[in-house]
Amino acid sequence: MIEKLLKKSEYKSLDILSKEVLEGLFHGKHKSILHGFSSEFKEFKSYEQGENPRNIDWKLFGKTDKLYTKTYQDETNIKVYFILDISSSMFFPVESNEKINKAVQIVATLSTILQKQKDSFGVLFMSDNLSFESKLGHSLAHLKYIYQALENLLEENSMKKKTGFPDLINDRIELLGSKKKIFLISDLMFSEAENSLFIQSMLEIKALKNEVEILYIVDPSEITSPNSFGNYINIEDKETDEILSIHVDNFNQTLQKMHELKFENLISKLSQKGIKTHVISVDQPLINLIKQII
Length: 294
Known about the structure:
Layout: H1 2-6, H2 14-24, E1 41-46, H3 58-64, E2 68-72, E3 79-85, H4 98-117, E4 120-126, E5 130-133, H5 140-155, H6 165-171, H7 173-176, E6 181-186, H8 192-207, E7 211-218, E8 232-236, E9 243-247, H9 248-272, E10 276-281, H10 286-293
Parallel strand pairs: 3-4, 3-6, 6-7, 7-10
Antiparallel strand pairs: 1-2, 4-5, 8-9
Helix pairs in contact: 4-5, 6-8, 8-9
């Protein structure tokens, strides 16, 4: 399913994209298009013809009138974890499961790129418990193993699981280790208390010398209801199965306010602490979203 998905005409240029980015990188040791933690400075070395001039230390040139470049430790490989929120809200809308589908496509695509680079990657599925965890690996067999796990997730169609994502991440901070790149993929449907715990957890993970990026998955219908028929709409709480009837205007105002509060109380606070958030709208082509992330 995943391999067919990546070969659809809409995504036909994914392989071309990854090759172009790789070929366009400078002729250094680390040719990754997905950069991990900041490498530690090792030493200066004399600039050699053919090397990328962007690596020249121009301040040192001004002092010595000689060309030197910086070399770094740990610049040959990166290790990446994808932590995917599989709470019930991620399977919205129920007719298409667009959020979880787009999240799966992104993880599959980035994993494919990492495998081609021989960089290690692993995947965790979390809701109120840890339902899947892979070890880090970079082989083709490992990639196919990840594909299978993602395919199995899509076949679930719906998860009757309450959000416990922030609590579970907090419990696994030490196990994630250090000097990795960690992608958190979620719709960030948290309570106010969970927001605080989530921010705290992200900062603790970052403090372990990891680089953290959040992929905020959003469906446009979660910001403005596409329903223009009638004055009221029925809304089902996917985690409690409760049916609520609400006026369309009030519903849209509530959606907008919730979206604004998410930026104010969560995303902006993470940004102030150096943690980047990518807004992933499911109505955007996969190719554009991959470019946005890398």
